[in-house]
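Let's practice the habit of predicting before peeking. Look at the sequence and jot down your guess about where helices and strands might fall. Then scroll down.
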Amino acid sequence: MVDRLKRATWMRLDLLDRWLLKELLGPLLFFIALFTLLLLTGGVMFELVRQMVDKNLPITIAVQVLLFSIPRWLAFSVPIGTLMASLFVFTRLSANSELTALRSLGITTVRMISAALALSMVMTLFTFVLNDVVVPRSQRYAEVTLKRSLGRSLASETGRDIIYPRFGTRFDSDGEEDGKGLNQLFYSRKFQDGEMADVTVLDFTRSGFTQMLRADRAIWNEDQASWDFLDGQILTLAANGSSTKADFDRYVYPLGSGPVRLAGIEKDAVNMTVAEALQAQRLYEEAGSIKEARKIRVRIQEKFTVPMACLVFGLFGATLGAQPSYRSSRSFSFVLTLGIIAVYYVIGFSFSSLGVKGTLPPILAAWLPVMLFLGAGGLLLKQASR
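Done guessing? Here is the structure:
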């Protein structure tokens, strides 16, 4: 049944599209495999070999980490493979005068490259799903597997200098509302093994009073939705200058789980899905971390624009290869491909940095390079169609 459906879908395509897709699929798979292998070797394999030599990392663990790392580098190699395949195939067809024969039959350049564009859009969708569903999970598995094998604490490298402000309504000494503003400011030097260490909280909930709590440790109590502060002191300052101080072994303090959730945010946006990145954005905004919130907004937009490189590269590769005047050797095509990739990613990185810095709005910083290159590709296509 499935085979019949596939055959029926395939046969609905025009003969020209079926022929071009057959020409494209082989080189596309070859270049994706080739660049995945090259990127994997440079990005992971050398480091794993070093860990095996220096820290006796078992080869079975190294193989697992290597396999879990494949999706991340596959997501990079798909756009590059799309560019290489489209440029390679259309250059060959042009050199063999097959495109000239199609033009003599009245087939336009736009029609000739439509199969390549459709394939590029499929690769765009594939890369988005890969980036959002597979890569975050596989990267976490790879990191956890490697750290466990090397005997490192999984939480020791996360959650340092956690600052969490909480805003809300303040109350006067009679219990009446007295405006809104900063209610509590939470600080912990680090978060490790589920505990906050060296914790300080400033409490401004009651107007006219400032309360400061300091504790060696603090643990989030999920059942009571509160914090257990352990081994500390509490100091209360009144507006008239009087103060009270008390030591405690355990002090239950009502503050949301925001600090724990803030400490658990992945440092690398690659390890987040779009939903997780949106949650991280809300936490950063809630915590008043403007720079981090702005940065994660850029990364969220890039979750959509990074896969769009497949469409941009497919357009460039097919259009350049289909130019009537374009005749070139494979070595020149390879150099040209590297040039296009370098320019695209340098411009993309520059705009991304401007977005993180706040010079450009996040949506503009992420989408402007894509729009510029699609526009340039459209001009090339217009020139090739003359």
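How did you do? Residues 109-150 form the longest helix (42 residues).
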